[in-house]
Amino acid sequence: MPALAFILKELIMKKSIRIVLIAICICSAFIFSRHGITSIYGAVDPPESVVKVMAIKDRDTLVVIPHDGRFSIKVTAGTWKLYFSAASPYQDTYVDQVQVKDDLATDVGLVKLKKNGD
Question: Which residue has the higher pLDDT, 34 or 1?
């Protein structure tokens, strides 16, 4: 009988340890998933007017190619300038002083490009 009690005690203890480990994993995943992504996003109008979007800060330059006129660039916190490299017949465009904060996505909204000669 004492051997049976010992075996039951061991099984209960192992099960308790597994439950605690699972709980720790779940809590860790929740804590780390709460951090946001520092980024700049927006759209261009008309969608086909832009070849690429560049985010510029100091000596850093990040480039993305918009998809269906929408873009998103993962950046660091700070003040950025956006440069929209236009497709013909549209004009290149800048958006200055884009303020980005840590763990937040900054929306620059809809950027309208003008045609050459407008």
Answer: 1
Do 107 and 65 fall within a single domain?
A: yes
Alpha-carbon distance of 43 to 98, in angstroms, equals: 15
How many domains, the chain? 2
First-to-last C-alpha distance (Å) of the chain = 94
pLDDT in tens, 17-46: 555 445 554 545 544 444 578 999 999 999
> pTM (2 decimals)?
0.68
Specify whether 17 is located in the same domain as 63.
no
Q: Does 18 share its domain with 44?
A: no
Across the chain, the runs of DSSP E, i.e. the strands, are 39-45, 50-57, 60-64, 70-74, 78-86, 93-100, 105-112
